Amino acid sequence: MIKTIALLGEYTPAFPPHISTDAGIKHAQNQLDAEITADWVSTEDIDQKLFDHYSGIWVVPGSPYKSMEKTLWAIRYARENNIPCFGTCGGFQHMVIEYARNVLGFKDAQHAEYDPYASSLFISQLVCSLAGREMQLNFVPESKVASIYGSLSAKERYYCNFGVNPDCIDELKQGPMNISGSDAEGEIRVIEHPDHPFFIGTLFVPQSRSTSLMPHPLVTAFLEAIVQ
Q1: CB-CB contact of 86 with 222 (8 Å)
Q2: Sign of CA dihedral 100, 128, 189, 205
Q3: b vs e for 84-105, b when ≥16 Cβ sit within 10 Å of the residue's Cβ?
Q4: What span, in angstroms and rounded, lies between the C-alpha atoms of 111 and 94?
Q5: Would you say the C-alpha torsion 164, 166, 167, 173 has a positive or negative sign?
Q6: 3-227: what fold?
Q7: Strand order in the sheet with 3-8
Q8: Which of 89, 113, 124, 170 has the CB geometry, 3.0–4.6 Å to 165, for a possible disulfide?
Q9: Beta-carbon contacts of residue 146 (< 8 Å; ≥ 6 apart)
Q10: Residue-wise pLDDT tens digits, 187-203
């Protein structure tokens, strides 16, 4: 049976992370020899029937999205119903906002890209942009992401100007979500839900390092969760 993934975001053919998303899926699909298709779905087209058609969602780079609220609804539905959910760059940021609002109870949790003067900014503008940079990461031992990589460290590429507000880190540690990856300065770069088949967000863009000979392990693990 063919499974289908919804790529939630505003598709831009010339945007490198979108090009690498399509390529990364193809690389992992070939490695797994799995029948998986992927459709780009604008966030403004998300509706209540989304999960009637799709077995998992990948919230892709390229925010701000046309509909933040519909994106958050899709993330919440996937989280609460054990549907594989992968978020990279902007997707990671929106997973943090959804979690802050619906699990931690910060109903006014906001993203600075949409409302820079909000009173509860869980995602803020980075002091130094990470766009175009490659940085070393450290993973928490025995975390899902460490298991997927088979390592406690990796080097990954970024395309973002926003990240977790340092003032909100203590709040993010209060619930069941795990902070499983950070950079050399200890800034949050990976989150994962330990009791979910696949609910992982990365501020970096792993698909940008995928190749046909070496599909990225995170993309491959996401597709594996789709076909299981």
Answers
A1: yes
A2: positive
A3: bbbbbbbbbbbbbbbbbbbbbe
A4: 8
A5: positive
A6: Rossmann fold (3.40.50)
A7: 36-41, 3-8, 56-59, 85-88, 199-202, 188-192, 178-183, 134-139, 153-157
A8: 124
A9: 139, 140, 152, 180
A10: 899 999 999 999 999 99
Contacts of 22 (CB under 8 A, 6+ apart): 38
Cα Rg for the chain, rounded, in angstroms?
Answer: 16
Residue of 49, 62, 67, 29 whose CA lies nearest to 162: 62
The model's pTM is: 0.95
Q: Is the peptide bond before 64 cis (omega within 30 degrees of 0)?
A: yes
Tens of pLDDT, residues 139-170: 999 999 999 999 999 999 999 889 999 999 99
Q: Which residue do the tokens 């069941």 mark?
A: 176
Residues in contact with 81: Cβ distance below 8 Å, sequence separation at least 6, in sequence order: 51
Q: Where are the domains of the chain?
A: 3-227
CA dist 79 to 66, 131, 143, Å?
A: 21, 28, 18
In this structure, what token pair is assigned to residue 154?
């990796």
- What does the alpha-carbon distance between residue 99 and residue 97 come to, in Å, rounded to a whole number? 5
Sign of the Cα pseudo-torsion (140, 217, 198, 200, in order): positive
